[in-house]
Amino acid sequence: MMHTAPIIEFDRVSKVYPSGGGPVTALHDVTLSIAAGEFIALIGPSGCGKSTLMRLIGDLEQPSAGTVRVKAKTPEQARRDRDYGIVFQAPVLYEWRTVRKNVELPLEIMGRPAEQRRERAMSLLRMVGLGDFAQAYPHQLSGGMQQRAAIARALSFSPSILLMDEPFGALDEITRERMQVELLSIWAESEPRPTVIFVTHSIPEAVFLADRVVVMSPRPGRVQRIVTIDLPRPRVFETREAPRFFSLVTEVREALRAVDNGR
Amino acid sequence: MPYAAPAAIARRVLPLIGVISALLLIWEGAKLLFAISDQRLPHLGAIVETMFSRTRGGAGPLLVVQMLANGWATFRVALGGFIIGGLLGFGLAVLFMRLPILEHGLMPYVIGSQTVPILAIAPMVVVGLGRMGAPAWAAKMVVAAYLTFFPVTIGMLRGLRSASPQSLDLMRSYAASPAQTFWKLRLPNALPYLFTSLKIAASASVIGAIVAELPSGASEGIGVMILNAAQFYNSRPPALYLAILVAGLVGVLFYGLVALAEHLVLRWRA
User: What does R_g of chain A's alpha carbons equal in angstroms?
Assistant: First the structure.
């Protein structure tokens, strides 16, 4: 996977926010290259700029310095080409639409015919285990189910890049571990398989999911270390009990501690 | 549910009966306790009796029928004003959302318009528009609309701006056009706010319609009934209370219709 051409490239990217107490550097001099089809986890303490990094890829914010290239285009062009599916920590489902209509929303905006939308939404809902809830409204679903619907919505138009900002952060630990396994199987089933940028606070989550874990340091945010996760796929429940899993968790934890010591 | 369970009906009806009984008791109790004369506060029985008295010295219809007919006239004016004011309020809100500079420029006047007492403006509008050849009903609707548009503007603007940053981020990521973002996100998201302000506007438009009927020359409506009853208060106090009752009825009915529309439109909330 590491040999494919880069799909996302950061070249000495910085992001500075103006604020009342002077400018705040959220991201400083980040250079990073992500291969197509890779699953990347961004981890670091609050304020390390990991969400900012994700938002720069998605053209939800623009860099103050340096360049971001996505599929050899500007992030803006990539956004206009509908290369991004986004999942936030909150499901952000439109509460006046049924679950199926929520999944159809991006396709509706992109002008796909009604029947095609419906078929695509139903097949995705079945894939995320919500086939029986297509006609339900979001408030009738549990938090985990809502987040599954949000993932289905993000995948509906087969974007080449999936941006996930702590998508399981609001779920309980048990649901969370189940969703991680489900996400990996959805990801493996998706054709073409999207590149995933996954922002998280959880070390085991990052190790379990990712091909590479990007460890970030705060104030100003920068890439501290990149840990390659060589756990075999498909990763299953037992993966979390493997000795290699623990040693990788330890490695990421040590990298994060180095972040603290370095300050 | 195919039918409402008796217990559910009882839960809704019993409080209503309780409140009405309490009001009746307080009314008659206050009369008894503080020895309030029939002139200042008539017996409830006298009001009911007046309802079924003949108008025009016995030749006309029952007073209650006449009152309800005038209530209906007021309702029509209020509805017309409500629709005009609602559309105006909606339009202003959309305009202010798209062009904040217009909001800064116009909002002080919009607010100012509502601090001027409606009683002072209504005769000017009714007489002024009448001189310009506008029909009486149109002038009355303008006064009702004057009170209606303001809550709709404020509520709708708030609603249009209440879409969460993340829901807007999603629209951005789909490369949605401003029109798509409006129709598929901002507008449906604003509907609960819109209905809240429409409920306020419903009663405001009834007040506007009644006030517009007060200037001399008006021939029908609750406003006319109130003026007449007030004029003959000394000889027949219950008539004024009846007019007020009908005014309240029209307001409640109007509010109920908007609440029903809300229930039907915002079905997804249930």
Answer: 18
Angle at B62 (CA atoms; ends B58, B66), nearest 5 degrees: 120
Count of C-beta atoms within a 10 Å radius of residue A180 = 23
Structure tokens at B225: 């009934």
Contact A85 B173 (CB under 8 A): yes
- d(Cα B102, Cα A25) in Å, to the nearest integer? 35
Q: Which amino acid is at A111?
A: G
Q: Provide the ipTM.
A: 0.92
Neighbours of A37 (CB within 10 A): 16
The CATH architecture that domain A6-83+161-261 belongs to is 3-Layer(aba) Sandwich (3.40)
Residue B98, min C-alpha distance to chain A (Å):
20
**What does pTM read for this prediction?**
0.86
Q: How far apart are CA B26 and CA B9, in angstroms?
A: 26
* Chain A residues touching residue B188 (CB < 8 angstroms): 94, 96
Residue B157, H or E segment: helix B136-160
Question: CB distance from A91 to chain B under 8 Å?
Answer: no
Q: CB of B161 within 8 A of CB of B170?
A: no
Domain ranges of chain B: 1-36, 44-269
Question: Within 10 A of A94 (CB to CB), how many other CB atoms are there?
Answer: 20
Query: From 1.10.10.10, 1.10.238.20, 1.10.3720.10, 3.40.50.1970, which CATH number describes the B44-269 domain?
Result: 1.10.3720.10
The answer on pLDDT for A262 being more than 60 is no
Walk along chain B (270 residues) and give the pLDDT tens digit of each residue: 456 678 888 888 899 999 999 999 999 999 999 999 988 899 999 999 888 888 877 788 898 899 999 999 999 999 999 999 999 999 999 999 999 999 999 989 988 888 888 888 888 888 888 889 888 889 999 999 999 999 999 999 999 999 999 999 999 999 999 999 999 999 999 999 999 999 999 999 999 999 999 886 778 899 999 998 999 888 888 999 999 999 999 999 999 999 999 999 998 876
C-alpha distances out from residue A149 to A122, A162, A165, B164, B269, Å: 11, 15, 15, 18, 18
Asked if residues A200 and A183 have their Cβ atoms less than 8 Å apart, the reply is no
Type of residue numbered A261: N
Q: How many residues does chain A have?
A: 263
Distance CA A37, CA A192 (A): 9
A136 interface with B at CB cutoff 8 Å = no
Residue showing tokens 């809704």: B12
Phi, psi of A226 (to 5 degrees): -120, 120
For chain B, helix (H) and strand (E) counts, in that order, are 11, 0
> 10 Å Cβ neighbour count for B67?
24
Q: Does B183 touch chain A (CB under 8 A)?
A: no
